[in-house]
Amino acid sequence: MNFSGKIDVSVPAQNAWDLLNDIDRFSSCLPGLERVTQIDDRTFDGVIGAAVGPISGKFSFRATIVESTPPKAPVCRDEHGTGRMVVRAEGTDSVTKSTISGDLNLTLSEPQANRTELNYHAQVAIKGRLAILGDMVLRATATLLLEEFSRRLKRRLEEDAEDI
User: Fold this and answer.
1) What DSSP state is assigned to residue 11?
2) Residue 76, Cβ neighbours under 10 Å: how many?
3) Residues paired with residue 67 on neighbouring β-strands, in sequence order
4) CA within 13 Å, CB half, 85
5) Under a CB-based contact definition with an 8 Å cutoff, are residues 148 and 31 in contact?
6) 99 burial type by CB count under 10 A (0-12 exposed, 13-18 middle, 19+ buried)
7) Which of 153, 157, 65, 156 lies closest to 105, judged by CA?
8) Which of 45, 79, 89, 115 is most exposed, with the fewest beta carbons within 10 Å of its own?
9) How far apart, in whole angstroms, are the C-alpha atoms of residue 16 and residue 117?
10) What pLDDT digit, counting tens, does each position of 41-96 carry?
11) What are phi and psi of 14, to 5 degrees?
12) pTM for the complete prediction?
């Protein structure tokens, strides 16, 4: 399955980048996250609870940042600073033992001062009993989770900006 979208926030790209790299602040935006442990500066283990159709369970996962290029401040007025991050995640459901793996590509750009566009594209593969539920059920659940994540991320970034 593939998912793409854009989150617009009224903060500089560097603020968004800083949040993406702060596991405590970032993890507060993830629906269902029960715990996360930083293994090193690019690797994280965690547990996320989720319900997919009639099946609910906990996914133990490992996420690894495989590429990280912070946004650069624009040199001139017509230039836009861009940052990029690629994260690979793999996990296993505690109930069905289904596996999930995916790559998330994030691109941050600042098309105008103090406004960031965070574009994402995720490729997700599910194997096991959860895959039997079908694309429609899985896609609907993932879409709801992405919408909630987007709301939380935007709210967190804009609230943090107000505190500065």
Assistant:
1) S
2) 5
3) 86
4) 21
5) yes
6) middle
7) 65
8) 79
9) 9
10) 999 999 998 887 777 789 999 999 999 999 986 555 555 568 999 999 999 998 88
11) -65, -35
12) 0.86
**What tokens were used for 107?**
């691109």
Which token pair is 39?
């293994």
Pairing of the two strands 82-93 and 33-40 = unpaired
Q: Token digits for 27?
A: 């993890």
Strand bridging mode 2-9 / 43-52: unpaired
Displacement of CA 88 from its chain's centroid (Å): 11
Per the structure block, which two tokens stand in for 68? Answer: 């990280």
The answer to whether the beta carbons of residues 32 and 49 sit under 8 Å apart is: yes
